[in-house]
Amino acid sequence: MSSKKSLTATNLAVHQHLNCDLYIHNVYNRTAPASGQDPASENTSDELSKAQFKRGLDWEASLYAWLDDSGLLLQVPAIPLAASILLENILADDRTHFFITGLSFWPPQSKLNERFVQAGAEPLTFGLAKPDLVEIKRTNNIIQWRVIDAKASKNVKTSHHIQIYFYTLCLSYLLEPPFFQIAGTSGIWLPPKDGFQTSSPSVADIKTVSVSLLAPALDALLFRELPKIISLPVAKVKWHYNPLCHGCQYERTCRARAEDEGQLGRMPNLSIDDAQILKDLLRISRSAGFQSTGVKLTDIEELHHLLANPAKVDQVAKASPTLFKKGKRILSLPKKVYQRNAALQSPLVEAARTQEIQIMRQRNYTCPSKEDIAIVLSIVNDPASSNPGGDFFCATLHSEDSEIILPAPFTCSADEFVSKLATIIRSIATLHPDNSRRYSSQFYVWAAAEQTLLQAHIINAALHPGTSNADIRLCISALAQGVSLLQTTFQPILLSGALINFLGKGKKLKSEYQACLARLGLSTDGTVDVLRKRIDEGIRKIRDEMASASGHDYRRREFSQLPPVVSLMKEVQRQMAFPIPGYWNLPECVELLLRSENACPSDEQIFAMYKAGYDSEAFSNVLLGRNLLIYSVLKEFRKRVVSTTNHSLFINEARIMSTNFMDICKESHIRKLFFMQQFEVLAKLTDLWKSRIDGCPEAPTLEYSNVVQGRNGPEYVFRLVCGTVDVPAFDRDWAFYDKLLVLDSSEVTNNGTDPDSLPVEALFDDLGISGLVFPLNRWTKASWGQQHPRVQRELVVADVRNVYTDKNAASTMVALRIWGNWQMSLTPGSIFRLSPRLVDFNTSKILSALFEIDVLWESEGSLYADEEDDGHHSVPFLQLVMNPNSFGKIHGAKKYVKTEGEIQKLFRDLKGLENNIAGSLVLKSSQHRATQRILSNRLSVVWGPPGTGKTYTISLSLLRLIEVEGRYSGPRRRIIFITAITHAAIEACRSKLVRLMDAYRSVESLPHKWLDEVKVEVVSRGNDHPGPSRSDNGTYIYAGTLFQLSNFTKRHSFQVDCVIADEAGQISLGAISLVLRSLTVEGRIIFAGDSEQLAPILSAQYPQLKFSSLFGSVLDCLMFSSNPISRENSQVLQASQDEGSEFQASQSQNTVVQLTENFRYVIILLEETDS
């Protein structure tokens, strides 16, 4: 069956991975690779490839051993099997479920040829097929099968799909129906997330894909596209030389072609997608007749001529604005051009043309301009090893200050790294001869992959025993992304705000003051007044330390976020264009920048030395030399990356390394949420800074027109020149002033780190005023005075009041209210840019609530024995997070449910007597189950899709609850909160409740006195709303947002008996703490929502934790925690359940009740029928 020309499933997978038609063309036509390949290079590349291949083999061996131990494996002879022999092996095994391994077979070429003929293509020949596993299941005399491939990668890739589809296609002709049946899916079996060396395989890790979903695209590829590609002349086959080509057997030939023919691959690190965008731009330019000369230009020359002609650029931009915008990003063109008709130059294109290094003249805020001490790390990673974060480490310290006595470098294995690094960090903290000062420092690695390995190693060390807790906390403080920045810049403001919020309202116990002081590392001795003053001094000290760290020197202010570990390769790629085709790494960079006589070893050569077992001294010297070259590249990089006026383009200087792990919360779940809230602020600020440092190129620009008198003062009217401005909501209670307005001029140049040359928005301090209400008053104006002098002179905050078209409908007009004290007159025709600022009234409130819950948890801990309460100490918020099932039932639940059943029967009987009002008070079957669940349990979840009556159910359930509790508990004060994330949801719930109360009152002969004791109020301003009477025995229902209800409880210091949250799928865990912190120990929680609803949108990315879903919505937490709340079984979910048996069914209800009747869709269907 073999042929000289053939393709295997592996060839098909590589074709998909490389996305290279030339590869598949060469393989099928047996094109020989270029001669003259360096044998040493081949050997070292092979060593790394062997390690990667070994990882795959190890995973397969682990999987097969597990299947064998489970009695699920059938090993067939490792020789090509005919279809008949394969059938005999399957039929001879009497198990109902097993997996076949070792299978190999020749594809059914005749059947495949028929498919090629049907597609009108020349047949291709295929080689031996070797699927990893074929899963077999016997059911009712039918054998169902599917192909499963074991892959040692983290995610499923397109290249995996083509392999399993090809195997499935071939086997579908060999295992013929009706006796054999395709399962309809194929699968990729991935290793456990914790690693197959430490965790057993699981069928849950089989990532299935529908065969019918793959078939259309892959059939077209196999039977139509591939024959066309293979039949083309080599010159017409699509290809692009790029980083994916590294290691390909045809790389040498393609590199030479890219250089000789001036292909786009002559520019380094240009992905296939980016290359296609540039080709499309050139195609548009050609279609418009821009190529004026008769000489055929190379791609590089054509791009150069296009950019040099402003008229051509303008026409291409108008022909395809989106494509041109992407092209500007790829070619590193200026984001904003102030001079019209100016020729453009791309550093990438010019480097490829001139064969000289080109500088990208853009500010850099992620690599410091200098540091006292640079710590360079090199990491060797063995793909075949079980270490998730590297196997061998080298650390060296460097400084241009000869007076600094640096600690000695070290090389070590993974087990020793954290302790050795912690020793280095401690040494740096004590190096400065002046004990009151410390040296600034910065960590560097070469590649982003090393940065990822370093983070993984630190996280893994923190999660596993054996590492000193002090060492790991020190390393996290110094190396974890964002942690040090939070501690030095943001945490002082956020934490001081949270502590002030926590202590500022309501009386506090002495123990609470002491807990607060203990977390700040301060003495807990003294009276309440002494403790309070000590806390005030501690907060002031935090802020003073922050201020002294910056020294109020705006030239040393940090713009955007300096990462704790800088990937130097990433920074060089961002700032410098090298005349190197395809891609480059450290050896090429060293050769080009340093012209060093000492050749830098490649990653493959270093790995080959590591695997060859070089003696430790020789191998350590290689890594030490590599680190020295990295530091030399860093110095040369800084020397070359300057503006046209020879100013450095590096904005920031290195910080003093943080060695204090500021962590004021002790309970682990709260601590994670506490950091998450801070990282959310940091992520939003980072996004703003990235835009501001370049002068907000995406911001809409406005031309000033005139000023008019608005309802609340003067409004400044502008014409929208470009961009978009959202129409403001007209139901806002107050103006947020959430925009920055700045004169848009070319006077601000890109010439360095001088604050006078930076865009003024880059100097704006969002956090200092993010929680203030504008216009500022005499008490808050001092915060504005802390802004940079340029900010106060050149910038105003603005609020969009209206967006409309002018009388002629020719222009979009924008009306703004502004606040500030800028020294600038508004002249008609002046151009301004409008950009967002951070407005955040709520983070400090959430942090305060979490801190308060943490203090309560600690104080309650003394009442519980170890593991007596699953660690939540009966704190409602932590019960919700850690074990929702711990809430349990209400005392007297049976009699509550029985009485409510009688009320339901009464309204049903009245409905039967044609009392329509009473009929509106009858709950449907699933709604009634939800009501009885609410009456009998402390925690209830009512969920269902839109239109199932969730709001109606919780409103009527609340009235039933109040009535039934009143009968058994007698008169007492009850406080109930109704909350949601939006005002609309709150109003819907409140209005539904009021209408149902009116319906109750309208039913004659029913007792209504209990309703007279129910007061429903909307809390729109929590600080001003009157509190509940302490002497009144009525029921108070307060409806408001989480934040206003939080202000309300702090203002009046009371506890809540029941919290009802509608649209809980939109509420984050951190936000719900605002109201749950006030819930009594025996209080009820009622959530209603849709688990498919859009969850809270987070700015940053957070890990998926094993035991709880902390970083999603409240419903996510309840559905996906390690102690998931029980849900209704299939028997309870029967919508046809007899009405008369509702009470009996309710006895076995579970926590989550799904509403099954959908009223909204019924109404829509009726309307459609009527129409």
UniProtKB/TrEMBL annotation:
Annotated SUPFAM superfamilies: P-loop containing nucleoside triphosphate hydrolases
Pfam families listed in its UniProt record: AAA_19, PDDEXK_1
Domain PD-(D/E)XK endonuclease-like: from-to ranges: 105-255
Coiled-coil intervals: none
Highest taxon of the lineage: Eukaryota
One Gene Ontology term of the molecular function aspect: 5'-3' DNA helicase activity
Name by which UniProt lists this protein: PD-(D/E)XK endonuclease-like domain-containing protein
Organism the protein comes from: Hypholoma sublateritium (strain FD-334 SS-4)
